[in-house]
Amino acid sequence: MKKISIFMLSVSLVLMFVFSSSGFAAPIDNKVKFEQYLYNLDKSDPLVSEQIQKYNKLSETEKSRLVELIYDPNVTKQAFDSMKTVALGRSTSISNGEVVIQSKVEESSNKKRAITTASEESYWGSYSWTMTFLGIDLTTLKTKVFYTIDGNNNVLSADTAVNSHWNIDPLVIVSDGVSSAYKSGGYAYGNGPFTVYGTATLGFISASVSVIVKSKPGDTTGWKESAIT
Description:
229 residues, 5-stranded antiparallel beta sheet, 10 strands
């Protein structure tokens, strides 16, 4: 019996050595994969550096929970769907407040100017949407419209629109479409299309997303239109 036990132990050790040396090691867990991904991002980007600092301040339990949320396809679907309902300048949350979706508007500073009614000046307004998991900003979609105003702050023309994104979610891929700008009803509009893909882990979900900004001096709003497929 003793010889059999020694034999079985020897076989176990040999198998462990063979599998480990031939590339059949135990699969890397999601937390390790996420940290490898996160720490290999471009740290010269101040937004990346900021999120890494936030992550490092989380407890080990919080880090594990963050990864669970990221790898949960239902959470991501709910987050993207919430873009349609979040009120301007407000935030909404899911998963008991662990995931926050927030919209934000910005515009040129409205400094007092000594100009005549014949003067023209360039102005801009932007609308963005950000998805945050446990305080870590993962994805932002933003559209910015540039337009020309006269001395009375009337919109003369919508000149151009720029859409941009920022994303460190390893399971989400975002690509920018061709943006457009137009003037209507005294406002300048910017339409920024995006295509958002979820990887296989999220079930290959995709969404055609338009982040739209409507702006005139002192009055900038925005919304998002999308269809999860």
